[in-house]
Each structure stands twice: as C-alpha cells, then as structure tokens.
Amino acid sequence: MRLLLVEDEHDLADGLADGLRREGYAVEVAYDGATALARAGAADVELMILDRDLPALSGDAVCRTLREQGHPVRILMLTAAGTLDDRVAGLDLGADDYLPKPFAYVELLARLRALARRTPHGSGTILECAGIRIDTVRRAAERDGRPLSLTPKEYGVLESLLSAGGGWITADELLDEVWARPDERGRTVVKAAVHTLRRKLGHPDPIESAPGRGYRIGAER
Hints:
- By secondary structure, the protein is α/β, with parallel strands linked by helices.
- The protein has helices spanning 10-22, 33-42, 59-68, 84-92, 105-117, 152-163, 171-178, 187-201, and strands at residues 2-6, 26-30, 47-51, 74-79, 97-100, 126-129, 132-135, 140-143, 146-148, 207-210, 214-217.
- The chain has two domains: 2-117, Rossmann fold; 126-217, Arc Repressor Mutant, subunit A (Orthogonal Bundle), CATH 1.10.10.
- The strands form three sheets. The chain has a five-stranded parallel sheet, sandwiched between helices.
C-alpha cells in the first residue's frame, strides 16, 4: 500500500520509513504539513502517518483539509500529547486512529494493518449486510430500520465486521482495531462486546463465531 509518513523529526521519520518499506509499504516522507498536503493531492496515498506538531502547517490543519476535500486516505495521527482530550480532538478532526508518542513499533504496525482493512473515507459511507446498516460518517447503526443504541466499542466491532465483507476477523484483530488503550486489551473484552452487540442486534443472530477463526457477519441468515 502507498503510505505517506509526515514527521518533522528527520531521524525518526527516516528510521520509520526504512522499517515500513521492509514491511512492504511504498513509503513517501514529508517533513512538514504543506508538503504533506501537496503530496497527498498528487499521489494515490492510501495510508498516512501524521504528526500533529508540524512546521509550516499543523497536522490538525492537514487532517481537517483532507477531510474537507473528501480525500479517502486513512490517517493514523501521532502526537507527544496523549491525554484523553487530545485523542478525542484528533479523532474529531477526522483521523481514523491516534497513537501517542513514545510508541512501540509493533503497535504502530498493528494499527496500520487495522487501518488497511477499513473502508476508506469517501469510498462509500454506508455498510450493509443481513439487514444491518451503518453510516460510517454519522456513526449511526440500524437493523431492519430499527435504530441501534450502541456503545463506541460495540459500534467499532460492528463496523469492523461489516467492513470485512463476510471475512473472518480474529479477536486479536478486533483488539487492534477497536481497543486503543493497553489497559483495556484482553480477549474477554471482545467477548463481552460481541455478547452485548448480539443482544442489541436481536434475532436471528447475524454474527457467526468459530474457534481459531474469530467472528464474521456473512450473508443473510
């Protein structure tokens, strides 16, 4: 996948770029926000690692502009500020995920894999299967025309399952996509979220599960 890495710390950016290229990503590097916008507009960029604190044009402004333009790039935002308010602010700007510095490289890779599986912004905001319909922009869900009142985690699980297009998603993959905080992680939280999601979706149960394979929402059941 084509990835644009936007980071003004040159040593960090160059080191990350080398590692990501070894992982198979086609990586371009921008060291400031203005260059990032120009390159994102000129290339078919699918993923972006975006630092919030950039010279010339902030990461916030880059993210906001791309979303206003309807750019489908999936954005992982980085920042040294890791408070809850900072994370919420970054996501409200249109970022798909948020990772505070310092971070573990293996976690960065996991989050990129999760973003790569998601439906891009602008490629269709409605996901539907088995009578379930979600609007990924409004983050609204319904089944057979009945609105669903879901917690953020339940919604995240449902969006991940629908985005998979009938494919299986393991509990570990759901953890990568939906549970950002290390103290929240554990397969028991996935089971609990799936259990309550099933109850809210009602009958017939649209979620299949299989040991060793995980969960999926397939065709009508």
